[in-house]
Amino acid sequence: MMGTTPILVLKEGTRRDRGRSAQTSNIAAAKAIADAVRSTLGPRGMDKMLVDGMGDVVITNDGVTILKEIDVEHPAAKMLVEVAKTQDQEVGDGTTTAVILAGEILKRAEDMVEQKIHPTVIAQGYRMAAEKATELLEELAEKVGPKDKDTLGKIAATSMISKAISANREQFADLAVKAVLRVAEEVAGAWQVDEDNIQIVKKQGGAVTDSEMVDGIIVDKERVHTAMPTRLEKAKVALVNAALEVKKTEFDARIQISNPEQLQAFLGEEENIIRGFVDALKGVGATVVFGQKGIDDMAQHFLAKEGIYTIRRVKKSDMEKLTKATGGRLVTKIQAISSADLGTAELVEERKIGNDDMTFVTGCKEAKAVSILLRGGTEHVVDELERSLDDALNVVRAAVEDGKMLTGGGSVHIELSLALRDYAPSVGGREQMAIEAFASAFEVVPRTLAENAGLDPIDTLLELRTAHTKGRKHHGIDLESGKVLDMRKLDVLEPMRVTKQAVASATDTAVMILRIDDVIASKGFKAGEGEAGEGGPEGEFD
Ligand code: ADP
Ligand code: MG
Asked: Where in the sequence is the domain holding 278, given as residue range(s)?
């Protein structure tokens, strides 16, 4: 008889999850991820303490940091983690918001799937809603430019309000604005900020308020010899990627020395080589040497005698920054150095920071480069400071580059929610339901902000809706007073890019997850092992 032998297509042990069941489990996993970060949203959000396998502790409020640290196994959950990563890469802030939004639109999709609306229809409706939302964002946004320093400061401060350094946020907002504007460039009518030109240097110790911006580059190294000067004005900088030492032979060589003259000659030869290096550097007029490799005692001694400020074993990344900033060229053959290889800096100086000496290279006219030196009592403080400052730098950059900003505190989300509800009937059909669901999903942001502040979420949402129906477009939740107030007056401002990107990546991921109706996991697949890295988990479904 036909059909009695089952045809095995998949290898034994393959796990398979199909249809509704696949959708339900994917959505459940995505929701779990969103729930994991919910409580951190907003100024009244809590922090999380993460402990890794080695017992190392990270304390943070940053959505993407939390999700990167926790080990996620479910493939759909991994996709949600990717939302946070994308948001972090594209904008640098709003990671929690993006994840919560993705979780919420998926949750609402689940209800529709239960009502037998086909996932592709939902996906289509969601796409339309996202497109409309983006248009609305452009309309709602207000202009901001590099000249509006105050406003940019407020944008920076808003991004830091939920962080541990909130008390010092004015100081750091100021640092972020100064740093971004220092490196901002107008290219063909558009502002560009290359974040590589802003260096963050962390030095544990001292007070948070000792943090400062340096117009130049900080290298965490001290000069190799105490007889060298500590301060050089109008420095001529040689950047050397070669060892200033006599090479040890690669193989065991025996040198027969039978009388004192021979020994003298041998040592003299070594000295001559080193002398030659130092003479070459001095000959072209170098007053500062940054060496990427080693510099031996004899070389240090000669360099000190010539009054050349020298540091050794400089990190490659620092060397790259130094070449860019000083306009110098990396030299690999010291004997071949020419004066054209030298860079310049107004001042190269060694300064004591905490217990360490660091080298400050300032007044580099070639490139725009700034450093922010972060200080703080403990490693945890300095690390969280860095993450917060990073957010601040990113929002200021986004605001300067796009020239557009919005108000925060959930004001934009309510506005979008109401506007999408108005738009939905014009589409009609089943897509209309999906657009309405998307509209409701936007409310998750103000609702969560209210919940985290201990406010009644329902009352707050009602109040917000009323305000916005009356045309108060900028009304959001003032978490201090618990009232619904104008966010412009309270200086709660955000770059448009935060919300725009959150909508885009939340939609993309939700749509991708919705369209999956079959999860085929091979026997060998164990989450974590397949850490696809950059490729992300999508590949597993291709
Ligand atoms: P994310 O990782 O999404 O950036 P945050 O914890 O930084 O999460 O919280 C951002 C949210 O907090 C935004 O919706 C922002 O509008 C809101 N927010 C920030 N400052 C205030 C404030 N002073 N009052 C009300 N809401 C605020
Ligand atoms: Mg934030």
From this structure: 218-366
